[in-house]
Amino acid sequence: MSETSLKPTAPSARPLNRWGQGTLSVLQVVFLALILIALNYLATKYFKRLDLSREAAYTLSPSTRNYLKSPDLAKREKPVRWIFMFRRTSPFYERVRALAEEYERLSNGKIDLEIVDPLRSSDRTQEITATYGLPLTKDLIVIDARLDDSLISNEDASGNRILNPNVKLVVAEDMALFTTADTKRKVTGFQGEDVMTARLVESLEGRARKVYFLADKSRLDGEGENSPLKSLASTLLFQNIELQGINLSGLDQIPADAEGVALVAPKYDFTDEELRTLESYWNRPRSALLILLKPGDTPPKLRTFLRGYGVTPRRDRIITMVDQRIDTVTRGFFTPGIDFTKDLAGQTTVFEGASSSLEVREGAEDLMNRQINPVGLIQAAAGFWGETKFGEKNTAFDEKEDTKPPLYIAACITRGAANDDRFAEDTSRMVVIANTDFLSPDKQLAENIDFLASSANWLMNRQSLIGIGPRSLGTYKLPILEAQVSFINRVNLFFIPAFLILIGAFVWSSRRA
User: Fold this and answer.
1) Of 360, 344, 326, 328, which Cα lies nearest the Cα of 433?
2) How many whole angstroms separate alpha carbon 299 and alpha carbon 269?
3) Fold for domain 208-471?
4) pLDDT of residue 375
5) Distance (Å, whole) CA 103 – CA 84
6) 216 neighbors 268 (Cβ within 8 angstroms)
7) By the number of CB atoms within 10 A of the CB, which of 94, 372, 411, 413 ranks highest?
8) pTM over 0.70
9) Contact present, 364 and 307 (Cβ < 8 Å)
10) Distances (CA, A) of 19 to 30, 148, 278, 509
11) How would you class 64 by CB atoms within 10 Å of its CB: exposed for 0-12, middle for 13-18, buried for 19 or more?
């Protein structure tokens, strides 16, 4: 038998079914397109935004988010109109636009944002500027919270044009923090969210809440741009609260339009008539008192007034010993005792300067029978005590004379049926803080300012603005020597391109092989 007959015969090749393969390819492409369309549709409905910036610069603060969900916006039948008019060349364009879009997104349709490019949409720009009487030279946002067709503006007796109380402007310059050095004005920070939220609150409320400051009883420095009093007024103004000075002497009663009274660093004691005037105000429904005390120096009649409502300022100084050295910088933490500190509860803070302690009679039966409820808000950390002989030699804790923990730096008082929803809005409220140095700009901490702002809003019965507030963003200078700049330039211009060329040559060589 020949060798050829012994070889196995190869099976015949199957004919190529081009129609079947083509149909399968088309179906794969169609199904892939359907999957991509479905995923894209789902992504538009269900998504999560992530702010990956180092300082979370595009994430709104808890207090702003709370306000955007509050009844002040939710119950509106007509959305608040925002008109964003920033030139693209503005250094704040991208940041402000992203924040404005975040306001619109979180408002659940209660903010209607319109973005207008002043250079590209000249007709629309002229229409808006003519309607609102705006200058063409400034980047700004118009916030229009009118509920009806009332006039956008009118003229006063002097012929000046005044905008409707429910129409506010957010000007780009107001969002920037400036410093002046060598007669040059330089931008060093950004407070866009602070200003935008403040203007939104102003437009919805239509007017600022008025808090009277008892000027004739205070010794807080009010001179200079960085004075503690101006710092307090600025903090309150961002909450749409206007601090207005008034002399208690000679008044029979606090003005009826007062929505709060502030007593800061009282130096002079009350007369019997003045104390009766203060007590008469405190006994009103919905009264509000903000009292900031100098340590260990509370006037006697004011001390008696506060003690009658469960909070007694002690004549001591909160201190501790560090390496045989007296330390008066008080470290403490926020207590979870009341709603307006819930976002801060458990967080630590520092009060520079001098602080005294407050005796807070929480849960005292005689006070509860009078519907008075004092609560400690900030407690000094372990290791601190209240020194009653501060300034004398050989300072050490004396159990018989000095104040033992717990030491409270701040407390609040409610008078009325605060736990009954029917009468909660008629309660009177008071906040007492035994430190005034934290108002100084060089001693301010963000958490203390948040606490002060939340206290003010709690006093005004504005629960929606309580919480951790916006953060101002600063600019940072990176010190780089000329030699380092030269090295960075060489890396960018020569080494990185050369490295990419080598990789390309390696890939080309491997493919040729």
Assistant:
1) 360
2) 5
3) Rossmann fold (3.40.50)
4) 93
5) 12
6) yes
7) 411
8) yes
9) no
10) 16, 68, 95, 39
11) buried
Residue 225: band (very low, low, confident or very high) from pLDDT cuts 50, 70, 90: low
For residue 208, is pLDDT > 80?
Answer: yes
Q: How far is CA 247 from CA 101, 114, 431, in A?
A: 45, 46, 21
Residue 15 has a CB neighbour count (10 Å cut-off) of 6
In 10 A of CB 192, how many CB atoms?
23
Distance CA 23, CA 42 (A): 28
**Which residue is associated with the tokens 């007709």?**
123
CATH of domain 62-171: 3.40.30.10
Using an 8 Å Cβ cutoff, are 218 and 247 in contact? no
> Residue 147 is encoded by which pair of tokens?
């509920």
* Sign of the CA dihedral with 236 first, then 242, 248, and 252 last: negative
Cα distance between residue 168 and residue 149, in whole Å: 16
Of the candidates 289, 269, 153, 159, which has an alpha carbon nearest to the alpha carbon of residue 218?
Answer: 269
Please state, in angstroms and rounded to a whole number, the distance separating the CA atoms of residues 350 and 347.
Answer: 10
Please check whether residue 387 is in contact with residue 404, taking contact to mean a CB–CB distance below 8 angstroms.
no
User: Which pLDDT tens digit goes with each residue over 139-186?
Assistant: 899 999 999 888 887 876 676 778 888 999 988 888 887 776 666 777
Q: Are 101 and 113 in contact (CB under 8 A)?
A: yes
Residues 6+ apart with CB under 8 A from 505: none
> What residue spans in the chain does CATH classification 3.40.50.880 cover?
208-471
**Cα separation, 399 vs 401, whole angstroms:** 6
Residue 263 has pLDDT above 70, yes or no: yes
How far lies 213's CA from each of 254, 294, 450, in Å?
11, 16, 20
Distance of alpha carbon 38 from alpha carbon 209, whole angstroms:
51
Tell me the per-residue pLDDT of 477-502, one tens digit each, with 9 for 90 and over: 556 667 777 888 888 888 888 888 88
Q: Which amino acid is at 319?
A: I
Domain with CATH 3.40.30.10 in the chain: 62-171
DSSP string, 274-315: HHHHHHHHHTSTT-EEEEE--TT---HHHHHHHHTTTEEE-S
Structure tokens, 19? 């129609």
How many Å apart are CA 452 and CA 29, to the nearest integer? 61
Nearest Cα to Cα of residue 211 among 267, 269, 264: 264
335 touches 341 (CB < 8 A):
yes
CA pair distance 335, 376, nearest whole angstrom: 7
Instruction: Give dist(CA 116, CA 126) in Å, integer.
Output: 11
Find all residues with CB under 8 Å of 245, minimum gap 6, and list them: 212, 213, 215
Q: Provide the 8-state DSSP code for 449.
A: H
Tell me the per-residue pLDDT of 129-144, one tens digit each, with 9 for 90 and over. Answer: 888 888 777 889 999 9
Q: Is residue 104 classed as helix, strand or coil in its secondary structure?
A: helix
Asked if residues 368 and 353 have their Cβ atoms less than 8 Å apart, the reply is: no
Tokens representing residue 256 in the block: 């009826």
